[in-house]
Amino acid sequence: xxxxxxxxxxxxxxxxxxxxxxxxxxxxxxxxxxxxxxxxxxxxxxxxxxxxxxxxxxxxxxxxxxxxxxxxxxxxxxxxxxxxxxxxxxxxxxxxxxxxxxxxxxxxxxxxxxxxxxxxxxxxxxxxxxxxxxxxxxxxxxxxxxxxxxxxxxxxxxxxxxxxxxxxxxxxxxxxxxxxxxxxxxxxxxxxxxxxxxxxxxxxxxxxxxxxxxxxxxxxxxxxxxxxxxxxxxxxxxxxxxxxxxxxxxxxxxxxxxxxxxxxxxxxxxxxxxxxxxxxxxxxxxxxxxxxxxxxxxxxxxxxxxxxxxxxxx
Length: 314
Known about the structure:
314 residues; mainly alpha; 62% helix; globular
C-alpha cells in the first residue's frame, strides 16, 4: 500500500510541512506539564497529590521520549540542527536517552517492520498473553525491576564506550558520546529550579516516576503500537501497526504528543507529530482504513492482548 494511492501530492506536501512554532509549542506543553507535576504536591501536599504527581511525571517522561523519537526522524522542526538540539536538550537528556543512538536503532525498526528482522520484535511478538503474565509484567514495571535492567544496560553501554581503545575508534566519524554528562547537567538544572522555586526533595518524584510509571506506560505504548495486530509479518502497515483513539486522560498519561497515531507514522514517517491526527482522518475519509481495525482506547487494546487463555508467554 502507498499513501500516494489515496492522497494527492499537494495533500502529502501539506502534511509533511514542518512548523517551528508548532514544534516549540509541543515542547513547551510537555515541560509545562512537568512543572505542574512538581507544583501540585508542593502547593497541596498529600499522599493523593504525590501519587498524582508521579502519574503526571511518568506520562511526561514518555512525552520526552516521543520528542526524542520525532526529532530523531528530523520531523519536528525544519532544521536538522534544531531537531538534534531540541531532541537531546529538551527531550532525551532529562531521561538519560541519547537521540542519535536511539534514532539509529529505531530507523532499523522502520525499515524492517513487518518482517522477522525487526529489532523491536521482543517487545510485542509474543502477544496475546495470559492475564497472569501481563500482571507479572505490570509488577516488574511498577516495582522498579524493569527500570533497574534499563539503567544497568545504559551504564554498561557507557562503560563499553569509555573502554574502547583509540585504535577501535580512530576511524569512527561520530562525535564523542557525552550523554551521561549532559544528562546530569539537565537533571542538575531541574534540581536547581526546584530548589529556587519549591523544594529540591521534589526531584525524588521524577526518579520515582522513572522507575515505575514511565516503565509501565512505555510498555503500554509498545503493546498498543504492534502487539496482536492482524498480521505482524505483513509488509502493509495497516496489518502490522495499530492506531489507538484517545481521550484527555490517556493523552495526559499514556499517549502524549499524538503518539497514538502510530499507523500513520509508519505510513509516512516524515509527517510531524502535530499533523498526524489530520493525516489519520484524511486517510480514513479516503477509504484507506475500511478494513483496518482502529482501537477505541488503550483499555480495549489491553483486553484484546490478554484475553486469550492459550497464550502463556511471560
